[in-house]
Each structure stands twice: as structure tokens, then as C-alpha cells.
Amino acid sequence: MDTKTFKSRLAQMLEHSFGKNIASAESHQLHDSIAKVVMEDISAQWKKSTEQHLAGRRAMYLSMEFLMGRAVYNDLLCLGLTDVVDEALKAEGRSLAELEDIEDAALGNGGLGRLAACFLDSAAAHDIPLDGYGIRYKYGLFKQSIVDGFQHEEADNWTKYGDPWSVRREEDSVEITYGDQKVLAVPYDMPIIGYGTKNIGTLRLWQAESADDFDFAAFDSGDYDGAVKAQNDAENISKVLYPNDNCEAGKILRLKQEYFFSAASVADALRKHKKRFGTLDNLADYVTIQLNDTHPVIAIPELIRQLIKEGFTFDKAFDTAHKVFNYTNHTIMAEALEKWDSKMVEKVLPDVYAVILQINERFYADMYAKGLDKAQIRKMAPVGDGMVKMAFMAIFVSSYINGVAAIHTEILKNDALKEWYELYPERFQNKTNGITQRRWLALCNPELSAMITKLLGNADWVKDLDELKKLEKFADDESVLNEFMAVKEAKKHQLADFIKAHDGKEIDPDWIFDIQIKRLHEYKRQFLNALGILYIYFGIKDGSIKDFTPTVFIFGAKSAPGYRRAKAIIKLINEIGDYVNADPETADKLKVVFVQNYNVSYAEKLVCAADVSEQISTAGTEASGTGNMKLMLNGAVTLGTYDGANVEIAEEAGEENEYIFGARVEELAEIMPAYDPRDILFKDGKIKRVLDKLIDGTFSDGGVPSDQEGSFRELYKALTDGASWHVPDHYYVLGDLNSYIEAKLRMNADYKDRLAFAKKCWLNICNAGKFSSDRTIKDYAENIWKI
Ligand SMILES: *Cc1c(COP(=O)(O)O)cnc(C)c1O
């Protein structure tokens, strides 16, 4: 489409929808009409692609979360329409930049949901017939503001101005039955536009509605509450995303949500398949389902249940399920391994529970046949100890199980799921996560993209990120490194301007930007970063740290609203910020900024402006991480532990181009049993000086009683005495602190040689090819889905 055509269609759409013209429309009206013009434009091709997906073997990606971010810029980029639309708007005194007000589609918590979004993008771009299935939450992840240093949450009503990128497909609705209610699942489809190809995939999000028409008779005869309640109870199922990242919720509504989209997606697949082939016998030849963590594992007994209803025997249905399903494990942390109380499952999903028991019987039969030890069988059974163990059910039934980074998969095989690996070694694979370079470079960093394209002589890297390797030959080219530094500087200026406008904080673009952005979680150790800042602050003041290159420490993170220790860490970071930022003696050396409402759109600005990427989880806790990849791709060095994909990042870019510190997984296994953090505290005066600040009244935690979670004294006690069910300093914060400081100061000193530092950054970009989700998705397609 050319600019003139687009402009006239946009003008028509605005007139028709709002009675406005391009110059007079509100920005959300502009957005709505741009979306509608694009949706009209792609509609025929989308339909064609959908039919092509259904005609052959295809993959379904079931995920409780899809953290899509803003659609408009990405869709225009993928269609090659960005300039066309911008020119059309500029002719009327408007611009695409105004659409920055548009809300993100934040139907996910963090990495797991963003991974699902990157996978859809990569599959679409590479003509892989993959479609996403999830929940159309009315409220996505809460919006965060920081008030007096505390996190405040506000509902995320993301469809307030409508949802022009979705199409309601009433005709594909599915009735979902629970023990105590029936609801209707109504699909809303979003196009997933493949970059540089005609292929358009689909993200199908199910919305819960009442299965029955509003009961006017009951309403009229006086049962007002009953009639309204039946409607509300149904709608509640897709009302809100659970805001716990990496943590099981265990609530009835959560189980209902999991079943809701799993059952609807399975029914959808069977209905489409039967319509096409008239039989379900060959289902597994055409449909493969990837389960994104255990949240959709209930789809396994549900598929078997639906097949039995269609006349399959249990064994035949089980065999089909085995061929159809694959399961991705995302964590080894105990608190995140999903289990459901059997009684609850039986009550909420009686028919499904009956199938779960049959699966469990089948497990016993198979294991007895193998002659496995009986205690061992009991331990591994999908049902036991009054619980349904979702991961065990998934591994028992699926064809393939994968971890999400090399080290993570090794831990699964050798430790967390050792017995399972011994039983089914052929089922285990690794699929190191990735990110899409369309959003995380082409879209968010046009300056660096243009430079790369110019140097390579083409833009092939947008579809083949390994092309970046060819940039290595410029690693000693001063003019190239200077140009790269100028790009980085421009991105730092842009971020500084945005932070000023969005958060009201001033930062100096000439300083080092040291950035930690990710969900707030103890295992991710923002606490370690906070203590490190205090450590350095005191070191500068007492003269033991000299020649410190001025650094701004930037944090972005949401905490689950009920996770009180994480919230205390947010408050602590802000207290430390207020304290050090106000000290004139260090005012030209360090500054701390906590930005509000970290989300995909904010990430797009932050990742391009970082000099240093903080990836400091305790070794063995971060399955992969994907934030680490975004920062690497945009030319930041990693200051990180040997954890998750950091290991592979260091391997690809060369360890000399990162700052790796801290105890390794195998070291921690030796250290932790006898670890006593007080040994460190009492022996190391510099560490004691930092920790004392938590309890000497310098910082205010807002008056939380000292024996309660959420107080700074409690954070202190978690390090020294342990908290909840954890041992003292469960995440080895004090143990790694000195090593962390050493790496950080070494990085800080290295930065002074700007050219040498730029070379490290450059080599990170050159070697980021492996971390494209294009590579990951092709690996799934070839080695798991056989597509
Ligand atoms: C990439 C991303 C994440 C995941 O970050 P990690 O550092 O891997 O935990 C979380 N939230 C948002 C908004 C992201 O874009």
C-alpha cells in the first residue's frame, strides 16, 4: 500500500468510526483506525494462511500467558508499512510516535509469557504453522506506580479503548463444563504477521462468557441476584491474570482458568480435524501440542476424555495423547512445581479427574511391567500424597520434554528429574530460549539496526541473526566502534528523556547505565544489587574505592502484590536511592533509579541504552532468562552468574567479554549444607557495615513490625536466620557479595578505556545469533514437532 492510498483509507475509517479526520482524532482513535485499515488489508491473506495451517501438520502452542506488548509498531514493521503510515500521519501534523500512549497487551507476567510471544513471531516469519492458544484476560498484569518508595498496583484495563487487533469468532465458541458450572469459551483471534513472508499465524485467546442466555424469567420473578450472579460467575473465569511469576497459586479459580483454555483449545482442534477428515484416528499425524510449562497440562486428560467420548478406548486415546503432547519445563524451584489437591480436582473437574486416575493406573501398570522399585513408583506417580502432580503427568504422557537452556536441561536430567531421565532418556531435549530480533533490535533500536545493515550491505539479519557474526571483522575498527558508541549515546539520551518524562527522575547520559530489569524475585537477587550499591557507596566515601566511573543503577521490576519480601526489596532500593542520591559527596559518582511499570514497551527503551546487563540470579535458579539476550543483542556486557543462558552467552561471546562471578551450581551443592552467612557477616567489616544499615534506622520500611515479612529487619533476618521454610541466606547473597563487587569494580575500571569496552559490547552483538527465537523455533519444529 502506498502513502496516498493508506492516507485516504485512514481518513475514511476515522470519519466512519469517530466522525474525525487525521488532524483532529485523539491518539487512541488514530490507533483504532490504523489497526482497522491494516486488519482489512490482511484479512484475505490471514484466512488463506489459516487454511494452509489446517491443511497440513501443525503445532499448537498452549500457554497461560502471552506477553505481547504493543501490536501496532510490530505489525507495521512486519508488513513493511512503518514509513508509509508515518508519512501519511506526518502530512497531517501527526506521527506514529503518538501511539506511545497505547496500552501494552500485558497478558503475562514475565519471561514465560514473553517467550510465547517471541515464538509466535518467529514461527510466522519462518512459515512454520504454529498457532497460540491462551486466555483473553479482561485485566492483564497490574500497572505499577511507585509511591513513597512502595509499589502500588492498579488494574490493567487494556481494552478500555477497544481491541482493534482482535476478531471475535463467535462461531468457534466451545461449551466448558465444570463440576458446578458451565461456561462458554468465545475465541478472539489476533493475527501474527510474519516478517517478509505472506504467512500469518493466529493467537487465539478464549474469553469466558455465560453459557446460558440471561435468565429474564428468574430476573422478572424476583431472583435478580441469582440471574446476575450466574453471568458474573462465568465471566470471572477470564477476568484476571494471576500476578504470581514463578509461583504456584493453588486456587480453584486458577484451576478453572487452566482447564478453561486447555479444554477449549483441545475441543477446537478436534472439531476442526473431524470436519476436515471425518475421523480422529489420524489426529496425531496432523496436530502436535506444545505445553508451555505445567499450566496447560490438564489438556492431556482432557484430550483423552474427549477422545473416549468420540468412541476411542482409553488405551487408544492414551496412545494418541502420547503422540500429540510435548512439555516444556521452565523451572526447578520447588515453590513453582505445580501440584493440585486431588479432592479439589475431583470436585471442580469430576470427569477429568476420572481420566487422571486412569492415567495413574496406566503408569502403575507400565512401571510394574518394567519391574521398577515399588517405593520409586509411588514417588513418581502422577497421583499420590493426595495430590495431582502436573509435571509428572506431563512427562509420563508426552513424547518430548525440554528444558530451556543447556545448564537447565542438564540439571533436569541429572538432578531434578533424574529418575524420569533414567526411565525415558530419549524423551529429553534442550531448547535454549531465544528472542525475536524483529522486536528486540529492528523495532526498538532503528539506529543500531541501520548501522548493522549498512555494514553488512543488506538486512538479511532480520530473518537470519547468525549474519551478525560477519560483523566481527569490525571489532578493531576504530571508526566502527566510534559509530557504535555514538549510537549507544543517542539511545542513552532517549532513555534519559523518557525517564524524566515518565518517572520524573534526571539521569546523566554520560554515566555508565547499569541496568537490572526483570520480575522482582528473591532468586533474581535485586537484593544483591542493592547491597552492592551500598557497599560501593561506603567504599567511595571512605576512599577505599577510588576513580569510580560515575554509574546510574537502573531497576525495573514488578513484584507479585502478595509477595511481601519482594515488595520490601522494592522499598529498600528506593530508600537506598533516596539516601545515596541526596549525598553531595557522592552526587557526581552514583545514582539509583527505580523506574515505574516495567513492561514490554519500557523494556524496548531500556535494553538499547544499557552498558551493563545485570543477570545475577543464584546459580541453578534461573532456568534460562531472556532479558539477558535482549541486552546482549543491543550491545551490553553481561555482569552475571553462571546460570541459565548466561552460560551460553559467555560461551558465544567469549568469557573475556562478560563479567562472570559467583559460586557455580556444583560449588553451591558443596557449600550450602554447611553454609553459615554469619561467618561472613562477622568477619567482613565492609559487609557488616552494609547490613547494619538495614536495622539501624537509617532506612524506613514504612513501619512494618520487625517480626513480619516486608520489614527490613525481616530481610536482615532472612540472611542471618532464614525465613519461611528456607535456610539462612537461601539465595547465597552474602556468599556471592565479594565476588560480585570484584566483578563490578573490574567492569567499572575497564569502562574507562572506552574503545576497549566498546569492543566487548560489539563482540556481544556479533555473537548474539544463537539467541534468536528463530533458531529455537526451528529446533522445536525439526526435533519435536517434526514439521
Ligand atoms: C524479556 C522480559 C522479561 C524476562 O526477563 P528476564 O530477565 O529473563 O527475567 C520480563 N518482563 C518483560 C517485560 C520482558 O520484556
TrEMBL record:
Signal peptide interval: none
A biological-process GO annotation: glycogen catabolic process
Location in the cell: Cytoplasm
Cofactor(s) needed by this chain: pyridoxal 5'-phosphate
EC annotation from Swiss-Prot or TrEMBL: 2.4.1.1
Gene Ontology cellular-component terms listed: cytoplasm
CDD domains assigned: GT35_Glycogen_Phosphorylase
Principal localisation: cytoplasm
Record carries keyword Cytoplasm: yes
Uppermost EC category: transferase
Pfam families for the chain: Phosphorylase
Catalytic reaction(s) noted: [(1->4)-alpha-D-glucosyl](n) + phosphate = [(1->4)-alpha-D-glucosyl](n-1) + alpha-D-glucose 1-phosphate
Keywords of the record: Allosteric enzyme, Carbohydrate metabolism, Cytoplasm, Glycosyltransferase, Pyridoxal phosphate, Transferase
Modification N6-(pyridoxal phosphate)lysine occurs at: K630
One MF term in the entry's GO annotations: glycogen phosphorylase activity
Superkingdom field: Bacteria
Function: Phosphorylase is an important allosteric enzyme in carbohydrate metabolism. Enzymes from different sources differ in their regulatory mechanisms and in their natural substrates. However, all known phosphorylases share catalytic and structural properties.
Family under the similarity heading: Belongs to the glycogen phosphorylase family.
Record's protein name: Alpha-1,4 glucan phosphorylase
Upper classification of the organism: Bacteria, Bacillati, Bacillota, Clostridia, Eubacteriales
